[in-house]
Amino acid sequence: MLLGGCASLGGGGGDGADTAYIARDVETLYFSAKDRLDRGNAPLAAALFDEVERQHPYSPWARRAQLMSAFSYYVGRDYNKSIASAQRFLSIHPGNKDAPYAYYLIGLSYYEQISDVTRDQKITEQALAALTEVNRRFPTTEYAADARLKLDLVNDHLAGKEMEIGRYYQRSGRWLAAQIRFQNVIDTYQTTSHAPEALYRLTESSLALGVPAEANKYAAVLGANYPGNEWYEKAYELIQDESPDA
Question: What is the pTM of this model?
Fold first, then answer.
């Protein structure tokens, strides 16, 4: 009967649908869910953990099941449901000792959905906000330590998107629009791997816009901060070719 109930919770139809709602004692239901998770059936585990809360909403097990549901959805790569479950946990238990982990799960769920830089970066920005919140609220936890590492990668990703757009504008001859994108990388993502190229592109754009003094400034900053970098060498050559009197 328990297996029939599990099947219907997992989305099956037929006669098993009614068995999902047969009352079971909370420990049996909770450990059935945990067993499914341990055996690799994360979607079914999540459904069973949700059933713990539905059948026993005032039990201490319900609080634990809420967070385990969020984790199970995460393991099963159903990231939107993981986020929703973790947010529900936080709305009911904002001061719980496991709140840092719930915030962390939200950040991870957004992070796992980050797409390549050629696509819209809304999810990347949501990951940035969620991971920043983990670091802000719980700076001394292991979750914050991992969040900081992931924030570096998220920022690098967002900087890469700005660079891609800026290069597109350059190819289109829209030099001012390109310069705005490259300047944003320097202002917002200066610690990322894209900063040297951004300075080089700003040098290029400044020359194209007819302001060699600005080009010299960007090239100088590039040389001071990234001596020996390939982008500085290119900028130096560009300055010599385009502005020999500089």
Answer: 0.77
